[in-house]
């Protein structure tokens, strides 16, 4: 299940995702580890306009997340990427966002790809929550979700992006 479908599916994911992200955040520490339950890792990077394709990646143990994009207009913007693994090792999360909430760049393309896990939930936002404002999600037709990536949908994406969230299920070794 990549994206919620129907009212009851959305409610289930709406409860699961914040809980999973809170669990990952609760285990934050200065240095990331590589074992299940390793501390989340957050890094800052510049999103640069100019129409060229750029990428930024973070890894945590056997899992990685890569954000690839092309943007126009304005100047560099400071963004962040955070990756984490749940304590039981069952979930890998990747979030990419602009801490100021809204990006003033025009994104011509974007893709966030995970390796080592399969996407269970993903959402893209035109505006990230800041202060009293809430996240504003992209319309479902603006982006697509596969087992390993979230990306813009050609001809439907309206060039606004401020946040991406992915929760992916890690492979489990059964005894």
Automatic annotation (TrEMBL):
Cited InterPro entries: MYDGF
GO CC term (a single one): extracellular space
Signal peptide positions (record): 1-30
Keyword line: Signal
Signal recorded as keyword: yes
One example of a Gene Ontology biological process annotation: positive regulation of endothelial cell proliferation
Domain of life: Eukaryota
Claim: Signal is one of the keywords in the record: yes
Entries under Pfam families matching the protein: UPF0556 (PF10572)
Name of the protein this chain belongs to: MYDGF factor
Gene responsible for this protein: Mydgf
